[in-house]
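Quick start: what a row looks like.
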Amino acid sequence: MLWNGQRVPFTLLGGYLGAGKTTVINHVARHADGRRIVVLVNDVAAVNVDAALIADHDGTTLSLTNGCVCCAISDDFAQTLELIRAMPEPPDHVLMELSGVGEPARVAPWASTAGFRLDGIVTVADADQIVELATREYVGDTIGEQLRAADLVLLTKTDLAADRGAAARSLIGGHTSASIIEVRDGLVAIDFVLGIDRRDVALPSSSLELGGYDTTVVDVGSPTLAELEQLLVELPPDVIRAKGLVHCSDEEVPVEAHVVGGRRTVRRRPDLDMARTTSRLVIIRANP
């Protein structure tokens, strides 16, 4: 059975040409925090990873010392997915950068094929150009489709927009109720991008401004299941997102902990290997 029935979370990263998708990809590749991520990009050469992180490069695959792999997407996308399925151990996540004119909804079914599950669709929007681009014939339709498919929108280049992105936010809000996070130079908490999990409720609906959140990692040890549940209940109200895979002392399988806004949940994960647990929670808090 493929990876013992485990389905690897798969995130689609869309957005029109020049929005800043590759910058986000670069940030994720450099800050994987121990996670083994397969990054699918249209051009490996565009992923400007620090040379010290590169373990091997054969022209189509960039292997990194942190366990991540960046692969160029072949013309046969199904073949690319087969290469991932052929890995002896499943990666922790797959992140795919779509073409600038790609429509995420058309690719989404591939992210739920054998061995994978769609974790979420993230759309990158350029505050400096998206309003004007949306008025163009055909281009506007593409941008609309990209926004409507989004579970999360990353708003970039607000420093270049005269209104600091106000018009862009209004446009985006007309297409989707997804959360909008303002980012600069691709600096976004990775657990926003790689932790949407469509089985959870959505992120808070209000926009988070640049610098409006802090991310910390907390080692929780090996609590009992009841202690873990109580720990989540006692998290302060400014925690807007938390996630982790925990080894509970009274459980024989990993326990996944989730905080999304005011919702706190835990669920047993018999489909995962206990050796993959870190007993750490990644906690994202809103700044006052």
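That is the whole record. The radius of gyration is 19 Å. The first strand starts at residue 8 and ends at 14.
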